[in-house]
Amino acid sequence: MSYRELPESTSDLEQEILERWEEEDTFRESLREREGDPEYVFYEGPPTANGRPGVHHILARTIKDLVARYWTMRGRHVTRIAGWDTHGLPVEVEAEKELGISGKPEIEEIGIERFVQTCRENLFTYQEEWEDLSRRIGYWLDYDDPYVTYHPDYIESVWWAVKQIHDEGLLYQGYKSLPYCPRCGTGLSSHELAQGYEQRRDPSLFSLFPVVSGDGGGDAPRRHLLVWTTTPWTLVSNVAVAFNPELAYVEVEALLGRSGERGRVGEEGGARTARVLLSRGRAEDLFRLEGSDGSGDGEGGSPERPRGRIVREVPSGELEGLEYRRPLHLYPGYREESGRLHPAEFVSDEEGTGLVHIAPAFGADDFELGKERDLPLVRPVDDDGRFVPEVEEVGGLPVKEADDRLVELLAEEGLLFRRDTVLHSYPHCWRCDTPLLYMAQESWYVETTAVKERLLEENASVEWHPPEVGSGRMGEWLENNVDWALSRDRFWGTPLPVWVCDADEGHREVIGSFDRLSDRAGGLPEDFDPHRPEIDRVQWSCDEDDCEGTMTRVPQVMDAWFDSGSMPFAQWHYPFEGEEEFRRHFPADIIAEGVDQTRGWFYSLLAISTIVFDRSPYREVVVNDLVLDAEGRKMSKSRGNTVDPWSAIERHGADAIRLYLITSSNPWLPKRWDPEGLEEIQRKLLDTLRNTYRFFAMYANLEDWHHGGGDARWGEPRPPSERPVMDRWLLSRLDTVAARTRQDLEENELTRAARRLDDFVVDELSNWYVRRTRDRFWVTGSSSDGELRPAEAFDTLHRALRTTSLLLAPVAPFISDWLHRELSIGDSVHLADFPEPSGHRRPDLEEAMEDVRELAALGRAAREELGVKVRQPLRRVEVVIPGGRTLPDSLVRVLKEELNVKRVAFPSETADIVRLHARPDYSELGPRFGSRTPAVAEAVEELEGSDARRLREGESIELVVDGEPAEIRPRDVQVLESGRGEYAVRSERGYMVALDPSLDAELRAEGLAREVVSRVQRFRRDAGLDVDDRIRLVVAGDEEVEAAVRAHREYVAGETLALELEVGQAADGRDHVTELNVDDHPLRLGLEPFDEEEAQPTG
RNA sequence: GGGCCGGUAGCUCAGCCUGGUUAGAGCGCACGCCUGAUAAGCGUGAGGUCGUUGGUUCAACUCCAACCCGGCCCA
Fold first, then answer.
1. Is the CB of A56 less than 7 A from some atom of nucleic acid strand B?
2. Tally of CA atoms within 13 A in the half-sphere of A720 that contains its CB
3. pTM for the complete prediction?
4. Domains contained in chain A, CATH given
5. Is there contact between A526 and strand B, defined as CB under 7 Å from any strand atom?
6. What is the ipTM of this complex?
7. How far is Cα A943 from Cα A949, in angstroms, rounded to an integer?
């Protein structure tokens, strides 16, 4: 048996694994294997099947897959059912495009039947791509039997939920001012609104409403209310003005601009002064007030503010009920001459004027105030967002386009005070990008405000990653919860299951099942489909007493978020079937989606489950943020900076992408898609891992070692605790890394876990363990004495690689599976258990090895400083480890080899070459000496020699600092050594290394011998020899070289596998001959393979 | 305007919760090394007013406040 070579390319490897998964049905096997084990419940958020998947989807899918694989390896059964979100506006918008039509009237013209049919047909345009992509990136998900929100069974479950909500008394029909998309012809719910805020420039209009009541009559200049709006078109529907009794209001006598420029003020004779009412807080920003020093100039106010003088304070009692003349009498449906002032809390004076124009039909606050004050609802706008024809001047115009004309008219009336523009974010339709209008409409609501406290409680019990999304984004949002606008005046969606009597609106029934509907309607067709328009034809006679009416379904469909939020039960067709499955899979242990789902899926899940089941449907949420382009900009089709997931996979492989997305930063931080970062993870972690395996496989094959055993010459390796120190260390590290990785993954600290594995593989496994133990992997090497049995090295490295593949399995499922199959008996890594510590932890050893690595780094720096290469042995190094620790002999040996020195000496022996000094420990001194700390510390730093020595030996000393005594205890200081003399000294964080630079002939000779070995090795390779080919070797050079080789003859021969070594002979006639130069010495090499037959001594 | 996140080396990010020695990695750059993993590998070095200002403290990258910049979400 031998270890296979890794496939040449990442892509080949991943394809090979994909095929194995296919053949062996590994995903399903992983579920079968855990059948009956405790469930780890995971919900898949349904993507819209008619949108294309992008790289940002890979992030969420990587997280979800990672979690599911991890818990499967931990012995849990993790159901993963795919889902498709199939209803709603996105689908309808696509269908409109397909049919070449736009807007509700055109849809109705071609017929709902045909339109809905088109929606249905277009649904799964990209389904295959979604599935292919998921498969390719290793996202294991059950696509065979997905939940699909338009399936009748699914809809039936949704209806059931609506009925539950209705039975709780939380479903109602209302009339409210809602964001409304004039293009789509439907209102949007508050969470849909969340998707579509964009910066937009709108008019900022200050107008003057003449006061008609109160005194101040006579000759006094006419008084006006100063009123601000960013929607001039709503002035047509003005019915009142609101003020806040908590604010202070003033009357300003204003000198209004040069006449004509801003329109005339006051109809009588173009008077240029006027009395203007507004809040005090805004007066300074809008006027240059007399008596003020003008310090308000610059920011806030406009440079062209008119001059003004505060005439008096206006008590709010005076404001209430004040009557003004309405502007813009254009709508014949509302001819009221005047309106009044009403108090309202929502009025602020942070912007505007502290006086707010009220049009109840077109604003949420306005609407509420209108209801409270019984104001008329004036809505001269049709469902397409145009003024109705009978409106003078602007009839038929889309409202926003009427702004200019309306402002002109206002100016003509002399009521225009100032007109600017303002840049603010404004809600747009999240699908078609049309600016939304707030308009009063009839809609069905879920009274979520009634369960607000429960929502908050449940949300607080959810563990959010990161927590601030739960407490902040979600929590704040729930605090300000408004009722869920459930209905949509559209076509392709779950029909709202409400039937109303045409004779008496009060006769209503909410249908919660098909059976019930069948009872009512006297049977349903065999292949009943509950969609529009068929469902609209299901009617029955009202059975209220003495009612002759017919029960007809209301025309609306439901918000698609309600569909997806119903998936915990609807995916099982609960409660009609799947009772047991539902119980087993509710609530979810985890869900993981983008932060944009906070008010989307996260909310709809929470709201529905809280009402229906009185609890949150998920325990934990991992939130991910966007994937941005390399410059940190949002990816968007319009900007053309999207990254095609397929070409990225082609180029880097799925493992690399998954690792990159998880390691580059925490999931909830926005991430840049950086191709260089991708290459890095590929080169560092993945290539290092591959190389380490390749190294292992090469020598295991060469020496015929296999983890299955078999070759008797290996015998039994000793138990780990008796192996060489490097093995004990590596096995200890494996346990530590396994324990920490388990803990991190349990806590969903995915990034931390993946980064740790990265560090472990690159730094510890490859660049330390393998590098330091390489020569134990070949039997023939000169260092392979009995103590360093190769079998133990193979066994240790094999364990390490196998464990590493297990640890990496959740995040890098391909390479880990490939490796695991080679390193086990062919099993998939994904059917294995996640590693747990196996009792080999040796924290003291790990710490000591840290010391060694620290000292080695300093030693290399010192060598660098001396300009002496590592191949040249040095006599001695003095080292200090913080806290006066020393190293066991086994590690001293490691350090000696790493630094290529003959001797390592510790401080007790180093008195003559180091100088002691003390460094203050502020965390000890600070609390004791308070403000004297700096002075004491300074005194400590000046300690030397015997004082420092006493401290190091555990005695306290007395100092006098600024005339006051100060006791310095050993724990207050760290005693450090620094080198003296010609030693090369390096120190850092309490570690110190001092290298003795002196060389003698012996050391030089050894250095030369090593140099020769290195050249021979390179030459072997260049000559095309295999690493285990034996050779005949001839070495010649000057006297010094030849002497060095003779002195180290065995070493040179052993290292180079020279069965025959001649020194000083002519190299001519050998197969391979070369002339070189080492350290200014000439060197001639000649070598050829050693043919064993030929070598037999002839008889 | 409000909420949340972020601002640390040219770039990508740790560290901050729980204040304490000389703020760390990787990439890139410069220089060098090693090689029985070889179209790999390793090391050393240069490089930082820790966004700004103020405060608390013996001591602030860390805690507090205000502000600035970027992002997301909302009004």
1. no
2. 21
3. 0.81
4. 10-165+562-658 (3.40.50.620), 203-358+402-421 (3.90.740.10), 680-839 (1.10.730.10), 853-995 (no CATH), 1001-1095 (3.30.2320)
5. no
6. 0.85
7. 10
